[in-house]
Amino acid sequence: MRDLKVQNILKQLDEDLVPDPYLSQKVWAEVSSKNSITKSYRREIFFWRGLSLASLGFLAVLLIRQHQPESVTSSAIPVHNPIVFHLENDSGIAYENVRMEMELPEGVEFHTNDARIAKKRTLSLSADRFEIGKSRLPFVVEAKSAGLKQFKIHVFDENDKLIKEKILTIQFSEPQKAAFNQEKII
Amino acid sequence: MISKNEFQKIIEEHQQAVLRLAFFLTKNQAEAKDLTQDVFIKVWEKWDSLGDVTRTLPWILKICRNQFLDNKRHRKYEDSFAKESLAESRHTLPASFEVWSCLLKLEEEERLLLLLVDHQGLSYSETASVLKISEANAKSKIHRARQEFVKIWEEAATLPKPRAS
Fold this sequence. Notes:
Largest sheet of chain A: 5 strands, mixed
Number of helices of chain A: 5
Structural class of chain A: alpha+beta
Helix content of chain B: 55-70%
Strand order of the largest sheet of chain A: 1-8-7-3-5
Order of helices and strands of chain B: HHHHHHHH
Oligomer: heterodimer
Strand content of chain B: under 5%
Largest interface: A-B, 32 and 44 residues
């Protein structure tokens, strides 16, 4: 009887726990990346770990990148491959209730099974906490055509005030022309 | 190697169970979602080492616990659901706040036993394998955990409810 009573009480726990609707896409994109991304490509992806919500962290990233064409990937990324954008808060300041927004260029879609989301040009995702040193994988995208594409990222605080705006340019190529090939797979 | 479709089915089937355990461990919804993602990436990597497919869920939950312990070693989880911040968590856990308040008065292992056996429906042997304890130990501890939980629950029910602000 006691275990039935406990079971009935614990049923209430599920009401507040809603799984991430994009979990499957994010995990698949991540494992695909692990299977097919070259070391140099991974370095480019990890540029996004430097995208910071606070100016100190953000300036540090800009300084590092001044030696290369600003915010442009050095090696081409093949089209039709999901790309995971890592965002890491390395600012030393923890934020709450932030909103991250990505605006896509032409020829790029959000990687998802949901056709409505895939057709969106801008996607906003909220995070109740964005702690120091924690990375998140909020956006998964896939280029449908080759060329130079510009991605716009906006980060807003809990009062919907723009904290940071960032534009990243990525070169996408057809698979056979891309900078990496199967032999380079990690 | 598991196919993409099979893997997506595994995620759909078990994500709620993993999220529950992740939340029990991290006590924070955002951390729990991140941990759930880490777990399924690990599931993909380790899939070939799963011996018995009928024990997929306990195997995944074991990965979840190990991943949590591993993350905890490498980065400090913020215990945002600590007892002192319970009052602030009321709005994020409207339906289960009272249950959580009582569960947090138990030891972590007792909470996990209740979750795995009485909430997830795992057998004693599966639970024991997730928690890395003996089956006999799991049986005796769950009995004690249930008694303790019901006692706390009933005591809480007799207390006056705080007025909504």
